[in-house]
Amino acid sequence: MKMIHFIGAGPGDPELITVKGRRLIDEADVIIYAGSLVNPKVLDGHNDSAVIYNSALMDLDEVSRIEIEAAKKGLSVARVHTGDPSIYGAIREQMDLLEKEGIEFDVIPGVSSFVATAAVLKKEYTLPDVSQTVILTRMEGRTPMPPKEKLIDLARHNSSMVIFLSVSFMDELCKTLIEGGYSPDTPVAVVYKATWPEQKIVEGTLSDMPQKVKESKIDKTALTVVGGFLGNKYSLSKLYDKHFTTEYRKGVE
Length: 253
Ligand code: SAH
Fold this sequence. Notes:
With about 250 residues, the protein is of the alpha/beta class. The chain has two domains: about 5-110, 3-Layer(aba) Sandwich (Cobalt-precorrin-4 Transmethylase, domain 1); about 115-230, 2-Layer Sandwich (Methyltransferase, Cobalt-precorrin-4 Transmethylase, Domain 2). Helices cover about 25% and strands about 20% of the residues. The protein is built from seven helices and ten strands. It has helices at about 20-25, 60-70, 90-100, 115-120, 150-155, 170-180, 210-215, and strands spanning about 5-10, 30-35, 50-55, 75-80, 105-110, 135-140, 160-165, 185-190, 200-205, 220-225. The strands form two sheets. It has a five-stranded parallel β-sheet with strand order 3-2-4-1-5, with helices on both faces. A hairpin with a 7-residue loop joins strand 8 (about 185-190) and strand 9 (about 200-205). Helix 2 (about 60-70) packs across helix 3. The model has no long low-confidence stretch (mean pLDDT about 95). Bound molecules: S-adenosyl-L-homocysteine. The site of S-adenosyl-L-homocysteine has 21 residues, from strand 10.
């Protein structure tokens, strides 16, 4: 159906977009993509006649104007966001403007960089007896943190933590996490451009990561993940425990 589709492009590898997202990009009359992070290869296969805009060069008003004009002409628009649009995607403000104009849209989820990061590290965020909680957060930048979400307070839980948009503040990040209650030898990984050909992985602990990141020269497009889930101590799951009965399988006595 011709309308505005917000599409999660995935983390970088052009094969990590959903089948639906792929089809809607191929069929779109207008494509607006976040050129600072979306791999342009994700757009390969678009209509020859499609008009393409890079939203990195535009403000909210300009993006919305293009979306609204196209929708009023009955064109189909692919608004392509990096990863999944619900995470630091600045998608809500666009959706609210469209709703005000009575313009129909839908959202096609994508593979967020935080799940791609676990995949390239070959780790699981939720290990029994290590952590059953994942905190996705960022450091305060131009966007302030709500007072109840200060990193130092979130650190208290020692959960698995994923920190977006913050690799250039690694000193302060690691210091705050230690002050908040993680032990200095807690494992940390920094993944630059997960799933892109130029992907880099730096592994260390809260105490040596600032130096390692400085040496790696990574200063953007990276995620920092922290927690015992990066280590090797954990309990086996109940789900596959042979003594444990589930809805599908009877455990042995
Ligand atoms: N909506 C996106 C996040 C947008 S915010 C998602 O779901 O992934 C942009 C931040 O996401 C970057 O500063 C970086 O911290 C992270 N990021 C995006 N793509 C990445 C990738 N391929 N590898 C590592 N981090 C990435």
